[in-house]
Amino acid sequence: MAISRDAVLDWIKAFTSVIEANKDYLVQLDSPIGDADHGANMHRGMQAVLAKLPGVADKDIGTVLKTVGMTLVSTVGGAGGPLYGTLFIQIGTATAGKLELTLADWAVALEGGVNGVVMRGKANPGDKTMVDALTPALTALKAAAADGTSIGEALRKSAEAAEQGVQDTISMVARKGRASYLGERSAGHQDPGATSSHMLLKVAADTWANA
């Protein structure tokens, strides 16, 4: 079984809906430790992405995802634009020319995306960023793929690992971004970027469950 191009498009559309529904929640998370704009920025960016999708709906998966990334870079303010943009551009680079993805394809692509985010943001696990959701998600995905797990089960485990990563950010002291200015006072707050990253992977697991 594989993830089709149409399934990838469905994932992006579903993520757009989830961001819209959780815009205020992400702003609420961002208020004590950031600029209180993560939800609004992501919403604006994903709405712009939604407008671009019809123009690439007949292209390969790599082109679709690189278009998503470039749109986010140009429309999302703050750190979210470059970081999410890099994530999608690197995933798109790894899936260039493909019309469907195997679990192995997705694992390689996600690894490229996560590595891109780490390089762009200079953040490591434990710094209280989106990396704290993405890294454990990637580890879980690769382990599941190595065990011969089905796509649906591997994606579920990946999303669960991301969710745990989000919870782990609550106790962390931020070492990157706006939140790092607060020092010890950043502890006790859930990271908004990690939260939206978990949403992205949870939507993938839900959308591709029967791939």
Instruction: Please state the structural category.
Output: mainly alpha
Q: Runs with pLDDT <50, length 5+?
A: none
Strand content: under 5%
How can the largest sheet be summarized? 2 strands, antiparallel
Radius of gyration: 16 Å
Order of helices and strands: EHHHHEHHHH
Q: Would you give the CATH topology?
A: Serine Threonine Protein Phosphatase 5, Tetratricopeptide repeat
Can you tell me the CATH class? Mainly Alpha
Instruction: Give the strand tally.
Output: 2
What global shape is seen? Answer: globular
Kindly give the count of domains.
Answer: 1
Mean pLDDT: 93
Compute the separation of the termini in Å.
6 Å
Going by CATH, the architecture would be: Alpha Horseshoe
Describe the structure.
The protein has one domain: Serine Threonine Protein Phosphatase 5, Tetratricopeptide repeat. Helices cover 69% and strands 2% of the residues. The protein has eight helices and two strands. It has a two-stranded antiparallel ribbon with strand order 1-2. Helix 1 (5-30) packs antiparallel against helix 2. The chain is globular.
Summarize the structure.
This protein has 211 residues and is mainly α.
What keyword list fits this structure?
mainly alpha, 211 residues, 8 helices, two-stranded antiparallel ribbon, Serine Threonine Protein Phosphatase 5, Tetratricopeptide repeat
Question: What's the topology here?
Answer:
Blueprint: E1 3-4, H1 5-30, H2 38-56, H3 61-75, H4 80-94, E2 100-101, H5 103-121, H6 131-146, H7 151-169, H8 192-207
Antiparallel strand pairs: 1-2
Helix pairs in contact: 1-2, 1-8, 2-3, 3-4, 4-5, 5-6, 6-7, 6-8, 7-8
